[in-house]
Automatic annotation (TrEMBL):
Its cofactor is FAD. Keywords: FAD, Flavoprotein, Oxidoreductase. Pfam families: FAD-oxidase_C (PF02913), FAD_binding_4 (PF01565). This is FAD-binding oxidoreductase. Residues 36-215 form the FAD-binding PCMH-type domain. InterPro entries: FAD-bd_oxidored_4_C (IPR004113), FAD-bd_PCMH (IPR016166), FAD-bd_PCMH-like_sf (IPR036318), FAD-bd_PCMH_sub2 (IPR016169), FAD-linked_Oxase-like_C (IPR016164), FAD-oxidored/transferase_4 (IPR051264), Oxid_FAD_bind_N (IPR006094), Vanillyl_alc_oxidase_C-sub2 (IPR016171). The keyword Flavoprotein applies. It comes from Luteimonas notoginsengisoli. The keyword Flavoprotein applies. It comes from the Bacteria.
Length: 462
């Protein structure tokens, strides 16, 4: 190797895989934001926790910044390495380390994909219930770093609820064993929960113990066409009150347009402005009748214009594809994304204000809305017109985002529901967190990362 620092790293950890080829730097140095030009020093791919810890200790001694890297499916620039950082990729650490049938836990390395965790749980007749469209490429370490949510938060909560133990290599180089799988533990601060959602700024997750659940009950999937945005919460309330909702996802006609253009079959003969995919637990004989009664009530109230109930698993998957295929179908447009949340009770007032704001701020852009209405989370995607300069496009979008952040602040919301802050939303963190809170977070970061090497520049500045 030509770089003396990398020569030293290789001597200290002889078995460590290091990549410096331009194609590898490009591949590992960016995430799905595609906004920054990757320029990492190198890519370190440890094979185990010991190698990962040795890399962090070396980085602290040499003052080399580290960007922890999982599946890099993030949308906030949290895994971007654009300033000579060492990317610490956990992709080789992708094994299942153990299953405990009594505690019903699965211990895994951080580079394992969410899909592989689902499959490993299923082998033992259980389920890991966190789920979203990027399941085949995102990693558990990345899910933990952003406290990922997804399509079943309404029923099962975020990643945080399913992590019973973590091993974290802090920025100091110390290996911390957090939580240890205990159901009850009131012995001081829960550092496990500090690590979850910290976006790699406190350390690197090298092992996780995940709680498993009973397999989900039989479910029924329905797609509903809605005449207006205003009736979303009424439909949600009806289904929630009459049945057990597993998921409740909405998207607009523009979202459906892009999914169908990407490959798919139109669900209805005519286009409707809004759609809902709902998945409902069918646990008893009365659930089918309750579902039909709720549907008929919504139709009678004029809240639903049309609907289809899946006839079998294949059609259910087809209906879900209309929702889960949105992000993939938009990727070629390099959209500017907002991922926001408010309390469910505040959703109607916020929606009315946000709709007016975005209509005024983006009159010339194609704006695609979708999200997890049942847990107060909206995804707003603004598509860059063909031929428009990227810098000009981002500058226009950020003018509106500043106002959107102020709107969220008035409604007690968050500028990041589940994608993290990273680089993209750093300027808007004060709309969600007070100055006192941010200063406390800085203090925690200084303790766990005394050398300032862990994902610097992300979340907030020093």
């Amino acid at each position: 190797m030509i770089n003396p620092r990398l020569d030293d790293l290789h001597r200290r950890i002889p078995g460590l895989r290091l990549e410096t080829a331009p194609a590898e730097l490009e591949y590992y140095g960016r995430d799905w934001t595609r906004r920054w030009t990757p320029a990492p020093l190198a890519i370190a791919l440890p094979a185990n926790a010991g190698e990962a810890q040795a890399v962090v200790r070396w980085a602290g001694a040499h003052q080399v910044a580290i960007v922890p890297s999982g599946g890099r499916t993030g949308l906030s620039g949290g895994a971007v390495a654009a300033n000579g950082e060492l990317v610490l990729s956990l992709s080789r650490m992708n094994r299942v380390l153990g299953f405990d049938p009594v505690d019903r836990t699965l211990t895994v390395e951080p580079g394992i994909t969410l899909q592989a965790v689902h499959e490993a749980a299923a082998e033992h007749g259980l389920a890991y219930p966190v789920d979203f469209a990027a399941r085949g490429s995102c990693s558990i370490g990345g899910n933990i770093a952003t406290n990922a949510g997804g399509i079943r938060v309404l029923r099962y909560g975020n990643t945080r609820e399913w992590v019973t133990g973590l091993k974290l290599v802090a920025g100091s180089g110390e290996l911390l064993d957090l939580g240890r799988g205990l159901v009850k533990n009131s012995s001081g601060y829960d550092l496990r929960h500090l690590a979850i959602g910290s976006e790699g700024t406190l350390g690197v997750v090298v092992e996780a113990t995940l709680k498993l659940a009973d397999p989900p009950p039989p479910t029924q999937v329905m797609l509903l066409a809605l005449p207006s945005f205003d009736v979303l919460m009424q439909v949600f309330a009806q289904l929630r009150d009459r049945l057990r909702l597993e998921a409740f996802e909405f998207f607009t006609d523009r979202a459906l347009h892009h999914v169908l253009a990407h490959g798919g079959q139109a669900p209805f003969d005519q286009v409707h402005p809004y759609y809902v995919v709902a998945e409902l637990a069918m646990e008893g004989e009365g659930d089918e009748a309750a579902m039909l009664a709720a549907f008929e009530h919504c139709m009678g109230q004029g809240w639903v214009s049309d609907g289809v109930i899946a006839q079998g698993e294949a059609q259910a998957a087809q209906l879900w594809r209309l929702r889960e295929g949105i992000t993939e179908s938009l990727a070629r447009h390099v959209p500017y994304k907002n991922d926001v949340s408010v309390r469910v009770s505040a959703m109607p007032a916020f929606l009315a204000e946000a709709q007016a704001l975005l209509a005024q701020g983006y009159p010339q852009f194609d704006v695609v809305w979708f999200g997890h209405i049942g847990d107060g989370n909206l995804h707003i995607n603004v598509l860059r017109p063909d031929g428009m300069d990227d810098a000009q496009f981002v500058a226009q979008c950020e003018q509106v985002t500043r106002i959107l952040a102020q709107t969220l602040q008035r409604h007690g919301g968050s500028i990041s529901a589940e994608h993290g802050i990273g680089l993209v939303k750093k300027a808007y963190l004060p709309s969600t967190r007070s100055a006192a809170e941010i200063e406390v977070m800085r203090g925690i970061r200084r303790v766990l990362d005394p050398y300032g090497i862990m994902n610097p520049g992300k979340l907030f500045d020093p």
